[in-house]
Amino acid sequence: MIGDITPDYNRCAACTKPNATSRCGKCKVVKYCSRDCQAKHWKLGHKKCCQKAVDNCTLRSALNGGNDWLHITANECEAIAKGLRSIQQSDPLARKFFHYFDAVSNLGGCFVG
C-alpha cells in the first residue's frame, strides 16, 4: 500500500485498463489487456528492459524484494507522467508521482523495488 492507495497489479501496462489477463511472454511480469497494447508497450520501450523470467517472478514479488530492482525506461516514465498529467491538479499524491516521473524521464528512467 502506498499512502492510502493500494497498487493494482492487474492493470494493462499500456492503457491502464483494469483486469488485464495476458502477461509479457518473456518477463512474465507486465500485464496487458490485448495484443495491440502489448505491441504498443513493447515499441514504447519495454523491449529495452524486458528480461527473461526467473522462477516465475511476479511484479508483486519484484516490488517486494523478491527479485532485483525493476527498471522503468525513460519512455515508460514519460508515458506514466503523461497519464498522471490530467489528474495531478486534483490529487496531491498523483501530483507527487507526476513530478517524479516527469523528472526521471529526462534522466534515463528509474528503478523501483
Molecular structure report:
By secondary structure, the protein is of the alpha+beta class. It is 41% helix and 11% strand. The protein has helices at residues 35-49, 59-63, 74-85, 92-105, and strands spanning 22-23, 31-32, 70-73, 109-112. It has a two-stranded antiparallel ribbon. Strands 3-4 form a two-stranded antiparallel ribbon. β1 (22-23) and β2 (31-32) form a beta hairpin. α3 (74-85) runs antiparallel to α4 (92-105). It is globular, with a radius of gyration of 14 Å. Mean pLDDT is 75; it is low at 1-6 and 64-68.
The level of helicity is 40-55%
What is the count of β-strands? Answer: 4
Q: What does the overall shape look like? A: globular
> Which structural class best describes the helix and strand composition?
alpha+beta
Summarize the helices and strands and which ones pair or pack:
Layout: E1 22-23, E2 31-32, H1 35-49, H2 59-63, E3 70-73, H3 74-85, H4 92-105, E4 109-112
Antiparallel strand pairs: 1-2, 3-4
Structure characteristics:
disordered N terminus; 113 residues; 41% helix; 4 helices; single chain; alpha+beta; two-stranded antiparallel ribbon; 11% strand
